[in-house]
Input
Amino acid sequence: MRRRRGAGFTLVLPFAVLLVLTVLVPVLYTVYLSLFTDRLSGLGFDGPRQVFVGMGNYLSVLVDRAFGQSVLTVALYALVQVPVMLVLALVLALLLDSAVVRLRQVWTLALFLPYAVPVVIGGLIWAYLYSPGVGPLASLLGFDPLSGRGILPAVVNIATWQWVGYNVVIFYTALRAVPKEILEAARADGAGPVRTALTIKVPLVRPTAFVALVFTVIGSLQLFTEPLVLRSFTGAVTSTWTPSLYVYESAFITNDYGRAAAASVLLAVVSAVLSALVMRLSTRRYR
Amino acid sequence: MRKASVHLVLLLAALYSVLPLVWLVTSATKSLGEFSTTSAFAFGHWNLGANVSALFDQDGGVFLWWIRNSLLYAGLGAVLGSLICTAAGYAIAKLSFPGRRLLFALTLAGVLVPTTALALPLYLLAAQLHVVDTFWAVFLPLLTNPFGVYLARVYADAAVPGEVLEASRMDGAGELRTFFTVALPMMRPGLVTVLLFQFVGIWNNVFLPLVMLTDPRLFPMSLGLFQWSTRVTQFPQYTPLVVTGSLLAVLPLVIAFIVLQRQWRSGLATGAVK
Output
């Protein structure tokens, strides 16, 4: 038994060390940082001094209009992107699963390919496609996707393009696991393919859908790379357009570590609460 | 009739997914002038060769470094990271040791911590250790993959029966040997899935390299191409470089995903349903 304990430690040790050094310590350090701010003391000849400000940084983040605006942007983005992408993925997976489809492997592969494209490069491709003069989209759509009004749908589209195929594959695999007897029973009862899909298949893949929902919501709150890339192509994306950009801006451009840390903590807490909420909802509904 | 409409919808969705990549291929053949004179999906006057050689010449051949770095960060990182995850997941599922529950709880919490929230403290810690702008400042944090450990635990539970481990112990094999020779082979599909997820995760991450690195010779490909793209408005001649570089960065991954189809199809399935 002692040997087993020793082996357990040995196998777990590399990960435990990494987890402590690169997640646990940084998280605690962020909380610590968020309670302090740099102030110039006296006439400023001694350089900045760390001063304890308690919840001061949190308050200044919460009343900062730029932060509020960034939260609003991401909330609006998530409200559009998450349902659009998940419904699209579910519909495509149901179509793929229907009896009449040929060449399923080819379709799933084609839909999945954007997942293999790094987010920066996906962003760059779309940025060029949106750019008037280079890409066809501005004239095709009838509005400028890089303008102040068009930018949100433009980012929604990039993320949807990138992730929809991945979710199609996940939904499709869950649909394949639906027991054949249930489907045959439904057919024997005279249910058509659409009705079978809506009343039998969709409820059965609900747990999968909720897991996908949690990950998509967490991901959309962290929205960073796509707007970062688009910033070089349009002025419509401000330097604090999303909370993650806000953290980046306050930490590395204005060097206000306390404010950046407070914003990071708020972001982490909100995403934890949201995912707990979704999981809670999913288990209750499912029973 | 219904068959036709189902296929039509799938065709539209497939075009939506693939056309931007087709644009990348056709655009990599264009000279700078042809971006505005030719239509988006038409080939240029076959400038691909010139574009590629310009790409590898730019900034003293830095693109070659970026390829090397991406392979190191994502390739080595995913291989090493997935082994670390699998060992930890196996130990949590199958062995008892003090602190097991605590470690698993911390792992689950780790899944929820946004990566963007970790960048600042990691940077400041790295600064205190004087490792900012080094390979390790990017490599080590990206090895940590709590979700991979969670998946590995699920796989170990499902794929490694307790009796097999008992038999191996009866034969006098130590616990470590049992893991490497008996359990690890049984967990191979799980290992491959974790490896694939981690590879894509590291390949996609720009926040951490962006924060940690200033020396272009340490950049991964996506950070390097991003840096070039920020100059495009002022210096349009970067456009063919960015586009051709993007094509070269995407191509190996697309080919890998086509070749490894069986792996990711089954891997994603287990990862998602459990």
About this structure: Chain A touches chain B through 98 residues (CB under 8 Å). Residues 93 and 172 of chain A are 5 Å apart (CA to CA).
